[in-house]
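#onboarding

Welcome to the new folks! Below is a worked example of what a typical request in this channel looks like: someone posts a single protein sequence, and someone else replies with the predicted structure as tokens. Don't worry about understanding the tokens yet, we'll cover that in week two.

Example request:
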Amino acid sequence: MCPPFSDPDQRLFVRNASLSDLSGIIALSRRVYEGTGMYGYSKGPLTGQINTFPDGQFVAMLGDTVVGYCATFRISGEIALGPHDWTSITGNGYASRHDSEGDWLYGMEVCVDPECRGYRIGERLYNERKQLCQRLGLQGVVFAGRLPTLRKRLKKYDSVEAYIEAIKSKEQSDPVLSFQLHNGFDVHGVIPHYLDSDHDSLGYGVHLVWRNPKVPQAGPEEKAKRYGKRMPDTVRVGTVQYQQRPVASFDEFSDIVRYFVDVVSTYKGDFVVFPELFTLQLLSIERREGSAADAFAAVTHYAGRFRDLMRDLALRYNINIIAGSTPVREEDGTVHNTAFVCLRDGQVFTQPKIHPTPNEAYWWNVRGGNRVSAIETDCGPIGVLICYDAEFPELTRHLVDQGVQIVFVPFCTDERQSYLRVRYCCQARAVENQVYVVLSGNVGNLPNVPNMEIQYGQSCILTPCDFPFARDGIAADTEPNVETVAFADLRPEVLITARNSGTVKNLQDRRHDLYSVNWRGE
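Example response:
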């Protein structure tokens, strides 16, 4: 018995994976693939897999330790049973090709701790796949398996196909393919260049299928009905177009913020959104001499009180708060433009601005962050991009690959041209990612506060441009430069419908064989 099983109080069980398992899955995958030429998973792809199709991801647990991981997604048979490679069919590992109406379950990953092999953990995970397939009434399970003995043995055979036939007839054995055949999978074919980094398999994948015995098999011409669904659930969002004005104290500032949180909560909002750097209003409490950078950095002293205020309001008013952004001094002494996201259950998340504008970097010495992460809320995963970040399409794509369906964009612009750069880019992000985008901006003037003297803003809530959405791709809009709140009810399930059966299907139609976003930050 291997050491991990020596404790009689430890229980081995399989359950659905959750985001709290990420560190354990990352460590497991790195142990499994060490020395193979392949790499273990990072946080982003795993977040995308779990958020995109939570029912299809499983972990095998030995007590509190992750000792096995299984990842799947739904896809059409036309794609899954045809030629493909691992990168293109899995969306670079994010499971972003998931089709909620797909008739096959695609297995993109099974890995088991090397120290725990021999206890049929892989078999347990394969059984979970089959049971899920049957619960959903799908045609079957399909994937491309490894052939780790191929590199050493291929010279003895005329072709890869001949070697596979030898394994099928049990003249040879392979620890992966023999196991899969034993578990009821049939060889559908061989896929060259399926995963070129798999050196032992020489890049080949063995195309395998298991057909669900509980459903009639669809013929090649049959297509499932993909329309006529009703999606009733909504997420109510209120975006605050905030008037900059001098304040005499932090308490006065707090009263203004509390008023808007109360308003949106009274209207039964799920989210209230504030603008970028609206906390610079606090500089009006006292006139500060010195440089613009010194004045900006002075607001960092309020960061802790501001975070605590927003967390308290989120709890008191039972609402999720996208708290705009504020200057925050990091442990290394640098200043970041950071958004706080305060959830109504008391959790607080941060999202730094990745791209400070030239103005921010020059006048305020703002540094850029290095992570863009999905944030789990009771309304599904969301993302935050601060103003200029929305003008970089890779960031939104990285968030959407992690399962995000609503992107919040707090912004701060001084005149119309600056504002329209943000607005037009956000509309593009909504279209190309089939995602909702919510903008919240400042209006008014703030004399004697460097780089905040004037504001131009027109807050809005944007949608993709297709029949299920508002005609102009605008769910809500405001009058420019007037303090107000705009509301919209957003239907995340309509996004799923549009992504799967819309007039255009931007996410599904991506050429994963040609391009992808490879995130190198945290």
